Amino acid sequence: MSEAAMGLWGERPMVVIDFETTGQSPQGGGRATEIAMVRVHRGEIQDHFQSLMFTGVAITPFVRQLTGIDEAMLESAPAAAQVMAQALEFAHNCGLVAHNAAFDRSVWAAELQHAGLAGPTLPVPEFACTVRLSRKLYPESPNCKLGTLAQYHQLPAHGRAHRALADALTTAELLLRVQQDLAQQFQTQLQDLPVSHELLARLQAVALPQWPRCVAGYVQSVRRTQAQIDTSQSVLCADRTQSAC
User: How far is CA 28 from the centre of its chain?
Assistant: First the structure.
């Protein structure tokens, strides 16, 4: 595959995102208290970003006990808008992933909106969801809670659950396992192609019996894109050669 095509399909990093919040949904006035992001690229965890974030919204007693985060810890934290600007930069040109992505995607969208970083030209991207993928890929697991899946796969421990960085690192480990298992399951169809964010998004949207057809469609799309890029590059090279004559 050409370098340009790999840039579109295989070489784009993924960033796992995990939020801790005040306890209410964004629609109910809830705000984020902590964010962690873990960059995964070429089968490895490569970098991370983590920060508490101050919004001034009270934390519910249940969440205070669950996460260990209280209002006193947030008094010296940077403003949420500042943290989200850093987070947006960290996630630039990456596919986004979360465990129970519907929740984290809604918080991501709401916090970007609060920070003035969202708008018609910045739509909220699709998240790959390790819950949706695991339900289909690991039906033997007792459930799809992050802690249960971590035990099921004997993933490395990364600290206290329900803190953003620990959960994001565990989700990143789970993501790597999902990629590995899908690459093995569809090795013949994928050949040299990676299990990309695009493929994960496609697979989570369809029922398990449709996965082989979904993978075939993904491979066809990649090959078609590869052919178009290679043709464009050939034409460009030919033009440059003629100009030099």
Answer: 25
For residue 26, what pLDDT is reported?
92
Length of the chain: 245
Question: pTM surpassing 0.85?
Answer: yes
The alpha carbons of the chain give a radius of gyration, in whole angstroms, of 20
CA–CA gap between residue 82 and residue 134 (Å, rounded):
34
User: Which residue range(s) make up the domain with 26?
Assistant: 3-239
Place of tokens 């596919």: 95
- What pLDDT does residue 119 have? 72
Measuring CA to CA, how many Å separate 20 from each of 36, 37, 50, 194?
9, 12, 11, 31
**What is the CATH number for 92?**
3.30.420.10
Strand 95-98 vs strand 127-129: parallel, antiparallel, or unpaired? parallel
Domain count, the chain: 1
Q: Does position 236 have pLDDT exceeding 90, yes or no?
A: no
